[in-house]
Design a protein that fits this description.
about 260 residues, mainly alpha, MetI-like fold, two-stranded antiparallel ribbon, 2 strands, about 70% helix, globular, cell membrane, transmembrane helix, MetI-like, transmembrane
Length: about 260
């Protein structure tokens, strides 16, 4: 379809015309830039926070099953439903976030209707929605570590920080590599979060347009399936390249 032009029911061969249009469209490059910013910000921050929370639950908290269920609930909840809730949280007039900021003397922030804040708001939302899956997978990885390692380390007087750096973290490298791969692919395909948070729009003045939203817009709104599919192929290649580089880096770290 990326080499065809016209509507879905009336297509004709167009060669590389669709690719030329996509690669000369500044909106597409803005969408790619926003997507890359989202991916390379949300993924590492969500992974670090998720690792900290998982470690605290695993080591310090009693009734672990209760907290695992608590943290897993957002993962099985509709992103659209969560987005509606977050729209109220981020509301510039009566949102709870601005209310809390006002208590510490910080003026209200226009989270949803400010061109300069759209991506920041989306990134915060993305980090929150990524935590549940990361925490559950990291807890599973922590359980697979032989407890004898910890017993021996504590016998020799190792502190918590040393145990984490020398035993826990190296043992979690395969789990972290898996999460990085899955999360990067998911982040480059971000769409639902944008749709939910900005009520079906890619932010004010399209300031939070992402690659998949660009594809959706060209396919369903503009009625240009050929251009949409060309953008899809390009996005696939970008994801493939980023995933390959990430896997090579993690392989070196594992060695």
């Amino acid at each position: 379809m990326s080499f065809q032009k016209g509507t879905l029911i009336n297509q004709e061969y167009a060669g590389v015309e669709n690719y030329q249009k996509v690669l000369s469209d500044p909106v597409f490059f803005k969408a790619l830039k926003n997507t890359a910013l989202y991916a390379f910000t949300v993924v590492p921050i969500a992974l670090i926070i998720g690792l900290a929370i998982a470690w605290i639950i695993f080591e310090k908290v009693k009734h672990k099953s209760f907290f695992e269920t608590l943290f897993f609930m957002p993962y099985v909840t509709s992103t659209i439903a969560i987005g509606i809730v977050f729209r109220y949280f981020f509301n510039g007039s009566y949102g709870i976030i601005n209310f809390l900021l006002s208590k510490v003397g910080i003026p209200a922030i226009n989270w949803l209707d400010d061109v300069d804040m759209s991506m920041t708001t989306l990134i915060i939302f993305g980090i929150w929605t990524s935590l549940a899956f990361n925490i559950i997978i990291l807890l599973a990885g922590l359980r697979n570590i032989d407890p004898e390692h910890y017993k021996i380390a504590k016998m020799f007087g190792a502190k918590d920080g040393e145990i984490f750096r020398r035993i826990t973290l190296p043992q979690l490298v395969p789990t972290i590599a898996f999460l990085l791969t899955v999360n990067i692919i998911g982040a480059f395909k971000v769409y639902t979060q944008v749709y939910a948070l900005f009520a079906g729009q890619p932010g004010i003045a399209k300031s939070a347009t992402t690659a998949v939203y660009y594809i959706y817009d060209k396919f369903h709104i503009a009625g240009r399936p050929g251009i949409a599919m060309a953008a899809t192929v390009i996005l696939f290649l970008v994801i493939l390249f980023c995933t390959f580089i990430q896997r090579q880096i993690m392989k070196k770290v594992g060695e």
